[in-house]
Amino acid sequence: MSDLIHAKLSEDIIGAAMQVLNTLKPGLDEKLYENALVLELTKRGHRIAQQKSFPVHYEGQLIGTLIPDLIIDDLVIADPKVVTAFTDTHVAKMTGYLAITHLELALLLNFKFARLGWKRIVRTHAQNS
To answer: Parallel, antiparallel, or unpaired: how do β-strands 54-58 and 61-66 relate?
Structure first.
């Protein structure tokens, strides 16, 4: 995993998510896992921005704001989910978040089942603007 972007941080985030799931168990709302993940990551020494707003512009005009669930250490977006499976829509949303925030990595974290699911989404050079 050492050749992956933000490999150590990704491992820490996934490990914290596993701890949260093992403690709370499946079946709760996403927001509860999100809040517990903030506590767990903070306890592990990470800086967390929860629900941070990013302005979104189109042709120089402000059209709204983007609010990712969590940004860890100003490097990785984490999006806790409780879904049967990640869809193309989940991936597309994270791709858009990466483009707007100019971050390079997002993690989808699925708390639906007893075993944590996760997916890495990396911003490609084509998305750089």
So the answer is: antiparallel
What token pair was written down for 92?
A: 């597309």
Helix axes 30-43, 7-24, angle to 10 degrees: 120
Q: Which residues contact 8 (CB under 8 A, 6 or more apart)?
A: none
Q: What is the pLDDT of residues 46-83, one digit of tens each?
A: 999 999 999 999 999 999 999 999 999 999 999 999 99
* Number of domains forming the structure of the chain: 1
Which residues form the domain of 96?
Answer: 7-127
Q: What is the pLDDT of residues 95-122, one digit of tens each?
A: 999 999 999 999 999 999 999 999 999 9
∠52-115-117 over CA atoms, to 5°? Answer: 45
